[in-house]
Design goal:
Layout: H1 2-29, H2 38-41, H3 43-64, H4 69-83, H5 96-124, H6 127-161, H7 168-188, H8 193-196
Helix pairs in contact: 1-5, 1-6, 1-7, 3-4, 3-5, 4-5, 4-7
Amino acid sequence: MLAFYRLLKGVTDPVWFFITDWFPIYLVAKGISLKGGLIAVWIPFLAADLGNFFGGAASGYLVRRGWPLGAACKALVVFGGIGVMSLIPTIFTVKLYLITLLFGLATFAYGAFSTIANVLPADLFKSDSVASVSGLSGTAAGIGTIIAFELIGRFSDARQAAATHSFEPIVVVAGLIPFLGMILVLLHVRNTRATEQGLVRPI
């Protein structure tokens, strides 16, 4: 379970850092001037903040309605994993308002997804293990982000050398990775033999 959680954070957190660091560059690659798109740059951040609140509020609402904790968490993870795929249609348009809207939807969904991912250690592990699990997963997220940015930089340099400035393949991958994380959660977050042995909390 610990290995799964490290993998989940290691592959999904780089998506957020890609969006925060590369969104303006993506707009420029689309032929949109930063001056003209300056107002749009902050919208994905605001959407992510709203998504954080939505993830916590929606999961709490589902639990109060009688949903098992695991089912409530998985529902938000599914919402997030599918919602982040809103990044992918941006490769088909150069309209600023549409790109901004789709990035906003994606980051809103990611905010909900990441909120659930961040509280999973407290839901799954005993209190004396939560800090260790969170710390190790944060380390995995940092390493994953470093590797991802190195790969993105090399890919971008290669595209530039070929006189191609498209970020489309990177955006497609970024949109699919949280979907992969969603599948990992659905497969691994369940009651198992470790639950019966008292190593992991029932969910």
